[in-house]
Amino acid sequence: MVGAGTNHTRPNLAGGPAVILVRPQLAVNIGMCARAMANFGLCDLRLVAPRQGWPRTDGYEKEADAAAAGAAHLLEAAKVFDSVEAACADLHFVYATTARERGQHKPIETPEEAMPRAAALIVQGAKGGFMFGPERTGLDNDEVAVADRIVTFPVNPAYASLNLAQAVLLIGYEWMRASGGGAAPFAADPRSPPAPREMVLSFFDYLEAELERVGFFRPLGKAPVMRRNLRNIFHRLELSAQDVSTLRGMFVRLVEGQRVGAAERRAAKDAGPDEAGA
Question: What are the backbone angles phi and psi of residue 123, rounded to the nearest 5°?
Answer without folding.
Answer: -60, -35
